[in-house]
C-alpha cells in the first residue's frame, strides 16, 4: 500500500528544497499535512522569512479541507469570490487558517486516487512553489494532483 507516512513527508520536504528557484537567494518554507489537515512536517530553510511557514501550512491545509489543490481554489476564488470569502471565513473558524487561493499547494494521492494529504511550498513564485511541491511528491512515488476537480464553476 502506498501511504503517506512521516518518512515520506520528511523526504517530500527535503526534495522540495532542492529544486531550482527564480533567484538563487530565494529561501523556502514547506509543509506536508495528512488527509485530515494535520501537520506531519512544517519547516523553513534557515533565514527564510518566518511568515512563509504559515503560508505553506495554510496552502496545504486549504487543499485538504476543500479537497482540491490551490490552483483550483484560486480559480474558484476568481470565479466565485463571495463563496470563496465565506468559505474562507468558515475555514478560519473551524481549522484555524483561511483558505489559500494561490499556487503552491498540491494534493497527495495514492495510485488509486485516494486523498492522502497535501504538500505546499512558499517563497518562490506561485508556479515555482507548485513545481517544487509536485516534483517532491512524485519523488517519493505518490501522485501529485495539481488540477483538482474538472467542473465548471
Question: What does this entry show, briefly?
Answer:
By secondary structure, this protein is α+β, with helices and mostly antiparallel strands. The chain has helices spanning 6-16, 51-66, 70-79, 81-95, 126-139; strands at 29-34, 39-44, 105-109, 115-122, 143-145. The model has no long low-confidence stretch (mean pLDDT 91).
| CATH class membership | Alpha Beta
Query: Element order, helices and strands?
Result: HEEHHHEEHE
For the record, what is the CATH homologous superfamily label? Answer: Haem-degrading domain
In the CATH hierarchy, the architecture is: 2-Layer Sandwich
Q: Which residues form runs of ≥5 with pLDDT under 50?
A: none
Description:
It is a single chain. With 153 residues, this protein is an alpha+beta fold. The chain has one domain: 2-Layer Sandwich (Beta-Lactamase). Helices cover 43% and strands 18% of the residues. The protein is built from five helices and five strands, in the order αββαααββαβ. The protein has a five-stranded antiparallel beta sheet, with helices on both faces. α1 crosses α5 and α3 crosses α4. The longest helix is centred in the middle third of the chain and has 16 residues, at 51-66. The radius of gyration is 14 Å and the shape is globular. The termini are far apart.
Amino acid at each position: 500500500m502506498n501511504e503517506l507516512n512521516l518518512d515520506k513527508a520528511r523526504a517530500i520536504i527535503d526534495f522540495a528544497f532542492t529544486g531550482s528557484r527564480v533567484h538563487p537567494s530565494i529561501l523556502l518554507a514547506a509543509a506536508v499535512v495528512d488527509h485530515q489537515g494535520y501537520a506531519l512536517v512544517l519547516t523553513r530553510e534557515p533565514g527564510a522569512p518566518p511568515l512563509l511557514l504559515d503560508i505553506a501550512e495554510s496552502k496545504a491545509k486549504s487543499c485538504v479541507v476543500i479537497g482540491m489543490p490551490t490552483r483550483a481554489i484560486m480559480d474558484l476564488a476568481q470565479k466565485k469570490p463571495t463563496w470563496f470569502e465565506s468559505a474562507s471565513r468558515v475555514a478560519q473558524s473551524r481549522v484555524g487558517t483561511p483558505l489559500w487561493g494561490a499556487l503552491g499547494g498540491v494534493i497527495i494521492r495514492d495510485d488509486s486516487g485516494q486523498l492522502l494529504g497535501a504538500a505546499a511550498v512558499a517563497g518562490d513564485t506561485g508556479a515555482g512553489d507548485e513545481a517544487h511541491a509536485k516534483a517532491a511528491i512524485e519523488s517519493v512515488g505518490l501522485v501529485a494532483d495539481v488540477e483538482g476537480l474538472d467542473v465548471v464553476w
